C-alpha cells in the first residue's frame, strides 16, 4: 500500500507543473534577466472586472519564498509584468487605475509622489492595445524602470515611488486580492 501511495504521489507531481507557463493564452517566461540579474517567476493571474479578462499580471523576483511584504521590502530587483488582454484597457483607463492605486497605496497622501507619478504616467501616452506588455522593474536604492513591449520608457527615482506602485498589486489593499494571491504563487 505504501508503494501505491508513493507511486500515486510521484505521478501527480510529474503531471502537475510547479509553475504555470501560460495564463489566458499569454506565455510566461520562467525567468527574466534584468540589469544582469536573473529574476524567477513567482506566479501570475488574471485581472478581471465584470467577468471580462483585462490583463495577466505576473511577478518575478530574485529571492524565492517571500510573501507580499517581503517582496515590497526586498533589497533585490523585482518586476511586475502586465500583458493586456482586452480592448477595454485604454491609456485613459490605465492612468485612472494607477491614480486610484496610488491613492490607496499611500492612504490618500499622493502629494509627495505627484511629480514623479505624472512622469510615470507618460508610459501610457501612446495608445494601449491588446497584446501590449508593460514591465515595471523595482530597483532598490534607485527607483523604478518602466518598459512597454521591451522598450525602456522611463526611470522614476525613489524607493517610496517603487513601493507605492508595487503596492497596487501586492499591498494590504490590492486592486484585486485574487490576482495578488496568484502573482505570489498561492
TrEMBL record:
Pfam families reported for this sequence: Chalcone_3
GO molecular function, a single term: intramolecular lyase activity
Keyword Signal on entry: yes
Signal peptide bounds: 1-20
InterPro entries given in the database record: Chalcone_isomerase, Chalcone_isomerase_3-sand, Chalcone_isomerase_sf
Domain annotation Chalcone isomerase: ranges: 20-185
UniProt xrefs under SUPFAM superfamilies: Chalcone isomerase
Chain segments annotated as transmembrane: none
Keyword Signal assigned: yes
Keyword annotations of the record: Signal
Protein name, per record: Chalcone isomerase domain-containing protein
Organism, scientific name: Ferrimonas balearica (strain DSM 9799 / CCM 4581 / KCTC 23876 / PAT)
Amino acid at each position: 500500500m505504501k508503494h501505491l501511495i508513493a507511486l500515486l504521489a510521484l505521478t501527480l507531481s510529474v503531471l502537475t507543473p510547479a509553475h504555470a507557463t501560460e495564463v489566458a493564452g499569454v506565455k510566461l517566461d520562467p525567468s527574466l534577466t534584468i540589469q544582469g540579474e536573473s529574476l524567477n517567476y513567482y506566479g501570475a493571474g488574471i485581472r478581471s472586472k465584470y467577468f471580462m479578462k483585462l490583463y495577466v499580471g505576473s511577478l518575478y523576483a530574485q529571492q524565492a519564498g517571500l510573501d507580499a511584504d517581503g517582496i515590497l521590502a526586498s533589497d533585490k530587483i523585482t518586476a511586475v509584468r502586465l500583458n493586456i488582454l482586452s480592448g477595454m484597457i485604454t491609456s485613459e483607463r490605465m492612468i485612472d487605475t494607477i491614480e486610484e492605486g496610488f491613492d490607496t497605496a499611500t492612504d490618500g497622501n499622493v502629494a509627495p509622489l505627484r511629480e514623479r507619478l505624472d512622469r510615470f504616467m507618460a508610459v501610457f501616452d501612446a495608445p494601449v492595445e491588446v497584446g501590449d506588455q508593460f514591465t515595471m522593474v523595482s530597483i532598490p536604492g534607485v527607483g523604478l524602470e518602466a518598459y512597454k513591449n521591451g522598450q525602456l520608457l522611463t526611470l522614476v527615482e525613489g524607493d517610496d515611488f517603487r513601493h507605492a506602485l508595487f503596492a497596487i498589486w501586492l499591498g494590504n489593499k490590492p486592486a484585486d486580492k485574487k490576482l495578488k494571491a496568484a502573482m505570489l504563487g498561492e
